[in-house]
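Illustration 12: Phosphoribosyltransferase.
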Amino acid sequence: MLTDDGKHLYVSWDEYHLLIERLALKVHASGWKFDQILCLARGGMRPGDVLSRVFDKPLGIMSTSSYRAEAGTIQGRLDIAKYITMPSGELGGKVLLIDDLADSGITLKAVVERLRGMPAIQELRSAVIWTKKVSAYTPDYYCEMLETSPWIHQPFEEYDGMGPEALARKFSV
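Figure caption equivalent — predicted structure in token form:
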């Protein structure tokens, strides 16, 4: 649900999963055949997992990080992992890059540039759930273009800073 002022988008688990399924259908409808999926950790892990299962393709993981300060709300220096985790072999062929959103676009743009420099990758396309209007990079596939560029409150945020003690309290009577 987008707030009236357009500054916040609140997403439930049901909405989140439906959006991932819509993303899979958009990729499928394009007719593009790919060999592997590479997701960006952490935001792209859930969508990457679902698309890996739907398309029956191997899933690789690349860690990136730029949100650190103020409980992950302030963007800092971009870190991109030197290594990519793959179930077997190496990343190559036709690769679908997955993340949850194109926010500023800085992360996706930098990762795409790095991957396009890898000779084993023949073709690269990107997919996200949300693209913000202010993004410097527009993915090949996305579910929603967010005109007001709101802060997205994803359903798993409840675990940020929770700790095992608070989690245990959820189950105590």
